Description:
heterodimer, A: 117 residues, alpha/beta, Rossmann fold, five-stranded parallel beta sheet, 5 strands, 21% strand, globular, B: 349 residues, Beta-Lactamase, Heat Shock Protein 90, 3 domains, 54% helix, elongated
Amino acid sequence: MPIRVLIVDDHGDFRRRARRLLEADGLEVVGEAADGASGIDAARRLHPDVVLLDLQLPDTTGFVVAAEIANGTPAPPVVITSTREGSDFEAMARRNGARGFLGKAELSGAALERLIA
Amino acid sequence: MTQSRAQDTDLAGQLFASRERYRALVAAALDCVVAMDHHGRVVEWNPAAERIFGWPADAAMGQDMAELIVPPALRASHRAGLARYLAGGEPVVLDRRIEITAMRRDGSEFPCELTITRIARPGDPLFVGYLRDITRRHVAQAELVASRARIVAAADDARRRIERDLHDGAQQHLVGVALTLRLARRKLEQDPALAAELIDEAVQDLATATHELRELARGIHPAVLTEGGLEPALAGLARRAGVPARVAAAPPERLPAAVEVTAYFVVAEALTNVARYAGKGARAVVSATLEGGRLVVEVRDDGLGGADAGAGSGLRGLGDRVSAVGGRLRVSSPPGEGTILRAELPCGS
């Protein structure tokens, strides 16, 4: 059973490339959202195995959304991503209920699987 | 007998002339010169004091100085200070400039610079006060503080914008290139045709990223200005402006860096305003000429006019920038008659 991913990021180009890369790695992208509110909604509706969540969103931050999702039912695992450096955000990501942080340039199916294992 | 009488008259005449001269010095002063005795009563009140406080001398003389010019809230401490000094205490306010609030005849208060000194003479002490209305100085200082804060805030905003442009633009493109190339690498053996397509896509993205970085760098500081001066830099601005624009005049020689940078950003901001506010069909003409040790920069358009220096058109920031190099900015924008923006920047030499 392929791992089902929800991508939450306001940059359409990134969503497209991430989808392409993850699908090439054998994952299934079940949905995309371009802001925090619809991301939270999609996480509840679609029951993904993992939410790939950008830090910078037009209506909020990834930390706030991660905490929201962690408090909901169901609470799929969240991996926070950004073009920024991971070392700065690892601790904060975990404190907000995420499984960890993954830099966008390092994205791969394998990396996601490792984080949610 | 006649001799000594004549001598007396002559001496008296000299004394009189000398005293009149000193009286004239005090009478002509722009600052208030007032004096009070040790009871705190007015014994001198010059014409400047009459003008600034609103009391004619004959009304002021003999009055209690505190009642006359000290705001009610401050009178007790004024009187206490005098009493303490007379009782042998150390003077707190004598012989230095202090800033206080003084009160006019109509009860209005104003900031005042004051020096009090004690007249050296035998007998009871006499205190002289020199007062200057510093309302204008306070207003100027407040504006200076405010404009400094605005300039710092503008610099912070500009940095935030650069960071955001880098993040949303070039960085996203480069991340995209990384993802594309990693996928191409993975597909290289099993699907070379797809890998080739992905590599082409990555090359395209890199070109876009490079172009965006160049634009961003130009917005931060245009290399053409540093390397070539105003002539090519203004030509570049006119070419890239959002409205038809031409440069009528530009100095071929190099000027001090601060002048060139200020002139450049004045023209850049003015052209942005023309594109934004002047309406369809407006055209702009840019000129920068040296006139008597100043660089005069003008941007004229034939659009709608009616420009408002306050309303977020960036004109206030421009004004701050121009003032910071000692220059002057003026905007003339009668409604329906187009706009002329003119900056005069001193060139030092």
